[in-house]
Every structure is written in C-alpha cells, then in structure tokens.
Amino acid sequence: QQQVKQSPQSLIVQKGGIPIINCAYENTAFDYFPWYQQFPGKGPALLIAIRPDVSEKKEGRFTISFNKSAKQFSLHIMDSQPGDSATYFCAASLWFGNEKLTFGTGTRLTIIP
Amino acid sequence: DAGVTQSPTHLIKTRGQQVTLRCSPKSGHDTVSWYQQALGQGPQFIFQYYEEEERQRGNFPDRFSGHQFPNYSSELNVNALLLGDSALYLCASTLTGAFSGANVLTFGAGSRLTVL
C-alpha cells in the first residue's frame, strides 16, 4: 500500500517536445506529491510539488497534473531543453511528516538537440 | 552557503564489516533524514532525526542505526554488512520550525557504499 509506481523507465524526446512522466499511488492517506530532479553525481533536488486539493500546478516550464479519483499524477515539461536531461522521481508522503517520502523508481529523460 | 555535505563520497567494505557515514545539514537546518538509493531505483527512507532523537523510521532492520549530534550533524551506522547494502546513501536536511507542514528537503550528493 506504500508503493508509488512510475512510468516510463526511460524517455527520449526531441528538443522543444513535451515529455510526460506518469505516477500512480496506492495509499489514499498521502497528501503531498513532489517531483525531484537528479543529475549524475548529485542528490535529488525538489522541482515542483502539489497537494490533492488542486488538479494542476505550474512553475515555469514544469506542470503537475493531479487526478485524485484515479490516484495518479504526472509531470509535463514544456519546451524541453537538453539541460533538462536528468532522472526524474515522483514521490508521495503525508503533508505533516513529509520527510518520509515514498519515491517512484525514476525516469531517465534524454532531450536530444 | 554550503548545502548538505556528506562523507566519505565513496567507500568499499567487505561483508560482515561495519560502516559509519556522516552528514552535515544545510546551514540553519535542524532535521536530518537518511535514504538508501540502490542502483537504478528511487531513494528509500531509512529514518529521520530531530532533536537528537529518531522520529520516523522506514522498513529497515536494526542493523541500520543513527545518531544526531547537538550541532545537528548526523551519522548513519550499518552493522554486519550484506552485499545488498551496496547503494548510494543520501542525507537530506530540513528545518522543522513553528510552521507545521511540508518542509523542503535539501539532499546531499551521497556516499556510495560498495560491499564485496
């Protein structure tokens, strides 16, 4: 019940395209859903996060779409750039005590020029 | 402003040995969490330390233990190492302040442990 399933495992998109990464969770108690970006040799860094009281959140070129009834959420990257090439992790936790994050398995994104 | 610093960056141990990993949180942060990231996997929560006490724990055996010092730095200890303990160990820090809610976690670059 604690799993967060993430797909696809890897994704190759042309520059300017819109990669979409999907996640599904099982624990309905989760109420905080962040996305992390990780470059090789670095730790994950928070990209954007959403709570289930909204269906969409945008920050710059990054958008989270959230479907509470389906227990799914996704990350869209607009006008993708080669510098966006990284591994992306979705995660879920409780709003209070969010240090205990449950991560997805990651998506390795490659943006080709 | 230094972020989260971890040491050592790489280390090799043999089965049955013990290892200690160290973490200095970001300046101003008082809470430290540890995660294990196996190759090709997402990080898995080990435990969280606040006010020198373990506050939350993930599904890890007692071989994994930790400590937080008065200066908020932390150690992760793993006893009786197994081959499956080979992973990147990440430390994340945050500030648990008067505001109760989601805190932004700042991760270090990790300590890569190889068990032979």
Describe what you observe in this structure.
The complex is a heterodimer of chains A (113) and B (116). Chain A is mostly beta strands and 113 residues long. In chain A, 0% of the residues lie in helices and 51% in strands. In chain A, strands 2, 4, 5, 9, 10 and 11 form a six-stranded mixed sheet that branches. In chain A, strands 1-3-8-7-6 form a five-stranded antiparallel sheet, with no helix packed on it. In chain B, strands 2, 4, 5, 6, 9, 10 and 11 form a seven-stranded mixed sheet that branches. Chain B has a four-stranded antiparallel sheet with strand order 1-3-8-7, with no helix packed on it. Chain B is globular, with a radius of gyration of 14 Å. The mean pLDDT of chain B is 93. Chains A and B meet through strand 5 and strand 10 of A and strand 4, strand 5 and strand 9 of B.
> How many strands in all of chain B?
11
Structural class of chain A: mainly beta
Q: Give the rounded overall mean pLDDT of chain A.
A: 94
The rounded distance between the terminal residues' Cα atoms of chain B is 37 Å
Q: How is the main sheet of chain B built?
A: 7 strands, mixed
pLDDT < 50 stretches of chain A: none
Shape of chain B: globular
Estimate the mean pLDDT confidence of chain B: 93
Largest sheet of chain A: 6 strands, mixed
Taken in chain order, the helices and strands of chain A follow as EEEEEEEEEEE
Key attributes of the depicted protein:
heterodimer; A: 113 residues; B: 116 residues; mainly beta; seven-stranded mixed sheet; 11 strands
Helix/strand layout:
The complex is a heterodimer of chains A (113) and B (116).
Chain A: E1 4-7, E2 10-14, E3 20-25, E4 33-38, E5 45-50, E6 56-59, E7 62-67, E8 72-77, E9 86-92, E10 102-103, E11 107-112
Parallel strand pairs in A: 2-11
Antiparallel strand pairs in A: 1-3, 3-8, 4-5, 4-9, 6-7, 7-8, 9-10, 9-11
Chain B: E1 5-7, E2 10-13, E3 19-24, E4 31-37, E5 44-50, E6 53-57, E7 64-68, E8 74-78, E9 87-94, E10 106-107, E11 111-115
Parallel strand pairs in B: 2-11
Antiparallel strand pairs in B: 1-3, 3-8, 4-5, 4-9, 5-6, 7-8, 9-10, 9-11
